[in-house]
């Protein structure tokens, strides 16, 4: 099964996380990485496993890089039944209630269209000593059993 990794970022950290996840999944899957701002909603395919990486900007908003994709999900309102996805969010607990809201917004938008979230919803805290790419690599290892094998 191919894996499509979409990232929505403000500062570029999500792109680094996307590459860390792709490195882990490359052994058993065929990951492709796309900036959410350059990915069309109509290209979402139930044949692919979707990994969404999204930061949180400002007071709980989507980052600039995720806004076009999120808007397209709302406008096109595709039927995403059969699409399975996992979310890795980036945020900072210093923002309290809006911590990691960007990833939650993307999960809500996808599930509202019929997609199914699987695996642990990862929430990286920028206030922690853990580097986002290190957390992402471990999370991706845990995700491998959830993704169907290539030859399934």
Structure commentary:
The protein is α/β, with parallel strands linked by helices. The chain has a single domain, classed as Rossmann fold (3-Layer(aba) Sandwich), CATH 3.40.50.360. The protein is built from 4 helices and 6 strands; from the N terminus they run βαββαβαββα. The protein has helices at 13-25, 67-76, 101-112, 132-143; strands spanning 2-8, 30-35, 48-55, 84-91, 116-117, 122-125. Strands 1, 2, 3, 4, 5 and 6 form a 6-stranded parallel β-sheet that branches. Strand 3 (48-55), helix 2 (67-76) and strand 4 (84-91) form a beta-alpha-beta unit. Helix 1 packs parallel to helix 4. The longest helix is centred in the N-terminal third of the chain and has 13 residues, at 13-25.
**What is the tally of beta strands?**
6
Count of distinct structural domains: 1
Strand content: 15-25%
Rg, nearest Å: 14 Å
Largest beta-sheet details: 6 strands, parallel
CATH topology, what is it called? Rossmann fold
Give average pLDDT, whole number: 94
Name of the CATH superfamily: Flavodoxin domain
Structural class: alpha/beta
Shape call: globular
Helix content: 25-40%
Q: How many separate helices?
A: 4
CATH class: Alpha Beta
Q: How is the quaternary structure best described?
A: single chain
In sequence order, what are the helices and strands, one letter per element? EHEEHEHEEH
Distance between the termini: 7 Å
